Predict the 3D structure of the following.
Amino acid sequence: MGAPPSDVRPVLCIVGARPNYMKMAPLIRAMGANSDVPPAVLVHTGQHYDPSMNAKLFEDLQLPAPDLNLEVGSGTHAVQTAEIMKRFEPVVDAQQPSCVVIVGDVNSTLACSLVAVKKNVPVVHVEAGLRSFDRSMPEEINRVLTDQISDLLYTTERSAHANLAREGIDDDRIHFVGNLMIDSLLSHGPRAVPVATLLEQAGVHGEALAKWQRFGVVTLHRPSNVDDLAVLRPLLRALRDASELLPLVCPLHPRTRANIDKFGLSDLVASPRILVLPPQGYLEMLGLMSSATVVMTDSGGIQEETTALGVPCLTLRENTERPITVEQGTNTLVGRSHEHILAALSEVLTSGGKRGRIPELWDGRTGERIAAHLAGWLQGRHAHV
Ligand code: UD1
């Protein structure tokens, strides 16, 4: 098959795992609305495949079904990354894209950018430059390496520019555009599933509902928090004690569920004041987070979403790659000690917690800005080829 003419070469858009979808959905929509952007081809690597981590979110976010699915599934980091690369290379050969757009920091992000750069296909990284400065996090490795080989780097907060400059990346490749996650949040906010509906579906009826007038939401899935018994057990004990102060809704990631079972820790979450749920849809999570008194999490995206919603967030990590959520938003870095978690929760319950303000350019129009900039950039490249 011959290569398509260069001016209609598609933009290959990559998703692999849950946090990618809320970023890619508004971008695909904005690119489709801008006639200067070549057509998008959506590639799913298949890193996440459970319906609750995947199809349900596509539906909630009105993300079109992927044009191609590489169906890589789970594996060690090496196996998963290698398998994505092997399966993505023939896609690049067949599609001859004008560029590859990748979002975030998951294994799919790094794997696809490596394939593209070695074929001289421009790599466009959305959410570039975030740094936790913690190289034990797989995502930090993915971020640093992806940014090094990206041609165009779109950032969500101004601190990212300094991080990239320090790593030797030229200023003219870096563009501050704002946060695509917030595009999704603002456009789908009105469709959020009410908490009463969720509780009803979870079997909480009648008088039992009264207890859930105020509640906290907990999500935990970072390997550093859930893969090691010596960390997970005290964390769950802290959450069990926290639930005495405020009932907790806990949508459990498959990794966390599996480890709780493997380590025999189910007793620690078996409480009438802890509602354990399977992974939730996007609209369900929006409903839960926006009505919560506080959210406790180790997720990156939820730190940003709670800032945009003005809901206090206690981050159960020692660091964050999203410092603006602490400096301007509602986020507090609490770490993982029992004492600090309980103290931070008590403080929120007494004072109402941080309210914060909305960071610059988290305005729901990031997709439009990227589409407009990308169109001009691709035309500029085309003119020089
Ligand atoms: C990945 C991302 C992480 C992101 C998270 C969101 C990397 C390095 N990590 O972590 O940054 O915050 O997604 O969820 O890319 N599993 C299922 N069903 C699925 C997917 C996974 O059961 O649909 C289980 C499997 O047992 C798998 C484990 O979860 O081994 C971990 O999945 P994986 O995609 O490797 O990493 P996450 O922990 O989800």
